TrEMBL record:
Protein name, entry field: Pectate lyase
Domain Pectate lyase: start-end pairs: 255-475
Native organism: Asanoa ishikariensis
Lineage: Bacteria, Bacillati, Actinomycetota, Actinomycetes, Micromonosporales
Example GO BP: polysaccharide catabolic process
Main location: secreted
Amino acid sequence: MSPPNSAWRSRRRGLLLALGAAVAAAALVLGMTSGASAATLFSDDFEDGNSSGWTTNGGSWSVTADGSRVLRQSSTSSDARALAGTASWTDYAVQARVRPVAFNGSNRFVAVLARVQSSTSYYYLALRSNNTVELKKLVGGSSTTLDTASVGVSAGSFYTLRLEVAGSTLRGYVNGALLAEASDSQWSSGRVGVATFYTSASFDDVAVTTGGGTEPTPTPTATPTTEPTNPPQPNAADGWASVNAWGQNGTSGGAGGPTVTVTSASAFLSAIAQSGPRVIQVQGMLTLPGPMHDVTSDKTIVGLGSGSGLTGGGLNIGLPIDDDITAPPTDAVHNVIVRNLNFRGWPDDAINVQMFSHHVWIDHNTWTTGTDGGVDIKRGSSYVTVSYNHADGTDKNMLLGHDDENSAQDIGRLKVSYHHNWFDDTNQRNPRVRFGDQVHVYNNYYNDTGNYGVASTENAGVIVEGNAFVNVDDPFHLGEASSGPGRIVARNNCFTNSGTGEAGGSVSAVPYSYTLLPCAQVQSTVSAQAGAGRI
């Protein structure tokens, strides 16, 4: 099936512009009504560029960029705290994303604090450099360990720490898993905070909600937690991009390197070619020469605002093609983040990931018209997450595995998560998969799909879960064109004026934790949150 004609597309874009205000209003409503059982007492994602509402003690604190804006404590030679909130708060949960940047010695830590009385008295959940998490209290500067557990801790990786206090019950979570629990009645109320002990660190997405102790314990494996309300959008790589593999623990991009803002194509191309970690902020729409331009390892490429991006050319994340290489080379491109960019008028692919590139996070981008794919992932690449993107009218949208004859490079690889993407009047390849196993396609919104949604071929293993299909005749099927069938496990999907899809075979569970939104909520949530300008 060919893409819609230009006249139809012009009329459609007019409708989208007319609906823009309504979508924005829906996003506000969704934000206000999520979490009906728990009220938000305080939240800060630091995207306003300041730390208003926080008081600090020790260390060197500032708001800086680390993928997104974060509160950074940059000293490794002090015991430092930043506090917020009011002393009257009683039962609540305080949660933050935390990334230790550097530990100065052994047994150092980063922490979240609850029921803070002063800079020397509070409860805290500490993630320590000796691979432990500890639930503790500090009384007049003297600490007591209430509970402890083993957990892998690496500098440069983000962790979600959550400390719940309800009456005398204290619970500590790391990445959604309950690891520490104790009973203590030293204090019944107090402020919140974050802290470091001889450690530099980034803190982001701090949230304090009422109802401490009511959070269910999610299974820290492939079994999802189903949330009845809209989950927060991630500010760290999740899914396959978060998995420790191939010598890389998660995906942090250019974190720890310098931040540069580029306003010209020449400056942009120079920045993405530099060696070493670097955060590259794109200001405005940059016109690139075609077709694609190489990105080196350890880079974060992020657009500023809602109107920044690239036109005329795309990004290549990977080494030059070499069919003789059948195992990941040591110099494979890795640890790359691409966020909040608009892609227009690309002559080949908007984003191409190839030649065993790994740990890549493609998040909150928008692509419209281009010659070939929106995001193609191929030639042994793996540990990639594609999330919260808006594919607007693309024909050959997302290819995973480029050729039926490429089994030597692809079998056992091409591990990719696709979640919370808006496949908006796309035609095909959403994604089209060869060989990849396990490929996780969950909580995506498909509307008015032309040819088909998901195709699993060449014995690929695809999990299609919790998606919303609206006006999609062929949501998913096995085999495609001359490619032999793959395997699809389909569950918890919603179909509106759509077919029911073709599934078959078995697929192993993915090894990471994830939160599954009920499919009835996917359309409103994803259409309000996906795309550039919505992080």
